[in-house]
Write a structure and sequence with these properties.
This protein has 3 domains: about 60 residues; about 60 residues, no CATH class; about 160 residues, Nucleotidyltransferase, domain 5 (2-Layer Sandwich). About 40% of the residues lie in helices and about 10% in strands. Strand 2 and strand 3 form a beta hairpin. Helix 1 packs across helix 4, helix 2 crosses helix 3 and helix 7 packs across helix 8. The longest helix has 13 residues. The relative contact order is 0.10.
Length: about 325
């Protein structure tokens, strides 16, 4: 049974059942909580002098304990620089782990990401919880194989991809894909992410079949290769003008860089949203924000910083 704090109503019911002579185990069963929750509640929030339990006073004591807890984000509240930095970074879509790493690397400030989470869920930082990435259900779902037979001409398997690409040793090796879309719309996002720097390029297209034209427009001049899936829209891959590699059938995890990137895009464009409702300017702003967000895998540098650094060399 998952632990949870008692509510005001539950504390009132607890008081009534205590006065009727119910045991702690019976009360826990009635309130659908663990017996240790009842024991802890009575120990912490009963009157110290008489050991009597009053629900309103217990509710107030629990509130004060949580509000003024010694470890509840005091470091952030007491430092105006930290408060403003964390608040602004959260508003820009950074995760607590990214904020913590950036502070340590570029400002020499040790602030654990768990401390930031604790502050966010406290009374002081609760308003910033809305900027955290939305929670998703990561349970694996069975996928039905698509019917229809087609062959991709001159297809090169991902298993033939050189080690310099697999080991992310250079900038210019991209993974590309189109973001999922609802059935009622034709608009989708065609995007590509550089494997080494995680630099993202993308644009909205009206039809899935236009993904090849989209890749030709968005890929920078220094692009060297493109890894794709086996979708029908990629049959004309030779027109992109790059060396292309293809994942195994039904193995999208083999191009995990672009898949993880789309998960980040979903923070701003929810699943099942119609891209027709979003302007090209807004989509460009999302891409720019993601390219300027520090990443743990880049030692808390931003994709734009790493990409530009390698271009200069």
């Amino acid at each position: 049974m998952k632990y949870a704090h008692l509510s005001k109503v539950q504390r009132s019911e607890l008081s009534i059942l205590l006065n009727k002579g119910y045991s702690q185990r019976s009360i826990a069963k009635t309130l659908d909580v663990h017996v240790s929750t009842i024991s802890r509640e009575l120990k912490r929030n009963s009157m110290q002098s008489t050991q009597e339990y009053f629900p309103l006073k217990a509710q107030y004591k629990a509130y004060r304990r949580r509000k003024y807890s010694k470890y509840e984000g005091m470091k952030i509240n007491r430092d105006s620089f930290l408060f403003n930095y964390v608040a602004q970074a959260l508003s820009d879509g950074w995760t607590p782990e990214e904020i913590s790493g950036r502070l340590k690397k570029f400002h020499g400030i040790i602030l654990g990401f768990k401390t930031i989470y604790k502050w966010i869920y406290s009374v002081s930082g609760r308003i910033f919880a809305q900027y955290l990435p939305c929670k998703r259900d990561y349970r694996k779902k069975r996928r039905k194989k698509k019917s229809g037979r087609y062959r991709i001409p001159e297809r090169v398997s991902i298993h033939s991809r050189p080690s310099v690409i697999n080991e992310r040793k250079r900038v210019g090796d991209f993974e590309g894909d189109t973001m999922g879309k609802p059935k009622h719309t034709n608009h989708t996002l065609v995007a590509a992410t550089d494997r080494k720097s995680r630099y993202l390029v993308g644009k909205r297209v009206v039809k899935l079949g236009l993904s090849v034209e989209g890749f030709r427009e968005i890929l920078p001049s220094n692009a060297l290769s493109l890894t794709m899936d086996n979708g029908r829209e990629n049959i004309r891959h030779k027109q992109i003008g790059l060396q292309t590699y293809f994942c195994d059938p039904y193995s999208s995890w083999q191009k995990g860089t672009i898949e993880n990137t789309f998960q980040r895009v979903r923070r701003y464009i929810p699943k099942k949203a119609d891209l027709a409702d979003y302007s090209d300017k807004y989509i460009a702003e999302i891409i720019e924000k993601m390219n300027n967000t520090p990443r743990k895998c880049l030692d808390y540098r931003t994709p734009a910083e790493v990409f530009k650094e390698h271009l200069q060399h």
